[in-house]
Amino acid sequence: MRIREAFSPLIDLVFPPRCPLCGDMIATQTGLCADCWSELALPGTPACASCGRPFAHQVAEGSCCAPCLKDPPRHDGIASATLYNAASRKLVLALKHGNRIGLAPLLAQLMLARLPFLDEHWLVVPVPLHRWRLWQRGYNQSSELAKGLARPRGARLLPEGLIRTKSTPSLGGLGAVARKRTLSGAIRVNPRMTATFKGAQVVLVDDVMTSGATTEACVSALKKAGAKRVVIACFARVLDEALSAT
After folding, report:
1. How far is Cα 97 from Cα 53, in angstroms, rounded to an integer?
2. Is the pLDDT reported for residue 2 higher than 70?
3. Residue 123: partners with Cβ closer than 8 Å, 6 or more residues away
4. What are 134-146's pLDDT values in tens digits?
5. What does the pLDDT look like over 24-50, one tens digit per residue?
6. Is 46 exposed, middle or buried (0-12, 13-18, 19+ CB in 10 A)?
7. CB-based contact 204:218 (threshold 8 Å)
8. What is the 3-state secondary structure (H, E, C) of the chain?
9. Which of 12, 124, 173, 185 registers the highest number of CB atoms within 10 A of its CB?
10. Mean pLDDT calculated for residue range 125-130
């Protein structure tokens, strides 16, 4: 960190810092301009005590949303830095498909604000990519985010804690039953690390949470291995009803 700080003025001189969303000049290499910061949609309160889904009106503390009451989730909470909109989508796509790995610390910093409890007693595990997709992309964007969460808080990072045993197609357009069938048996705990998860507290990291089918498969695998708590952390969460209310 000291080396980075020492060379920061030189880096800024050679590569003037610009906002990764709009390209305008900014003060530091890691950040957004004021206008683009304002375009990010942050989850509001009050929210579901179980999944963090924002309510459109005031409710009693500890209330749960209708989906959680109808089908109680296996996870122990969802911490989302932003709601999925045009601004967060551009950041995610730049990280995921634009080889902008340098964005990961910025996105992770926003996620950490939603994880005040994360410390050295927790394990941090990314949602896994299938090896073929990993070879094609060259990196797992969720793993890059997980690094940015674990290191500042002293948590233990397990980049290979979960493995994807089969390549699955896009889940877009599929119903809940079809999504579950597609992911059946696709994700499991790394056999070499099974004992590590017994009684553990785990933060499961993903870049975007849409239907929740993938994270649900990961949570099931971790709970089956004996994890005590599994909290899902994502940079952006698709909640159109909450977005329309902002």
Report:
1. 28
2. no
3. 155, 156, 157, 158, 161, 196, 197, 200, 201, 202, 203
4. 888 889 999 999 9
5. 776 555 678 888 889 999 998 899 999
6. middle
7. yes
8. CHHHHHHHHHHHHHCCCECCCCCCECCCCCCCCHHHHHHCECCCCCECCCCCCECCCCCCCCCCCHHHHHCCCCCCCEEEEEECCHHHHHHHHHHHCCCCHHHHHHHHHHHHCCCCCCCCCEEEEECCCCHHHHHHHCCCHHHHHHHHHHHHHCCEECCCCEEECCCCCCCCCCCHHHHHHHHCCCEEECHHHHHHHCCCEEEEEEEEECCCHHHHHHHHHHHHCCCCEEEEEEEEECCHHHHHCC
9. 124
10. 94
- Report phi then psi at 204, rounded to 5: -95, 125
Distances (CA, A) of 199 to 50, 190, 202: 20, 16, 10
pLDDT digits (tens, 9 = 90+) for 204-228: 999 999 888 899 999 999 999 999 9
Which two three-digit tokens encode residue 181? Answer: 């069938």
- Tokens of residue 85, six digits: 């909109």
Residue 110 has pLDDT above 90, yes or no: yes
